[in-house]
Amino acid sequence: MHDLYSEKDLQELSGQLKKRYLAIGCFLAVILAVFVVSMIIRAEWLSIASFIIFFAGAVFAVDLFCLPLRRYKSLITSALTGRTHTEEMVYEKTEDDTSVVDGVPCLGMIFLGAPDKHGVREQRFYWDRELPLPAFTAGDQVTLKYTGRNIIGYQK
Q: In principle, which of 35, 63, 74, 91 could form an S-S bond with 50, CB 3.0–4.6 Å?
């Protein structure tokens, strides 16, 4: 079984996230210092401007630089510690459009499940867009390891 995520990936992602929080914290500390100084010297216009910049910068920076990494970290944590399932299926196709699943960009992959009383059913699983696509061709027997609907491992 070829696992897509490892503890090393989680540690690297945690390190990147800490660096980003530190950089944002330093930027916001400077703006907060300007705000405090402007309150001491009673420069109303500077107080208002620094207050607006502080909160707008905090929301903008965290939303743009930290939340995507936190969502990706959540996916990897779920892959490593969450409930996983393994199932053998037949690969059919990969969709062209990108889907956003729990804040992570993914590609939909269609697999044919085991036949039941209604016939063979298609099942959509999601492949992390950050990872290279495997070389599946239509009709390949693939053993999938997944959590939720996200593929976290496979064996051809």
A: 35
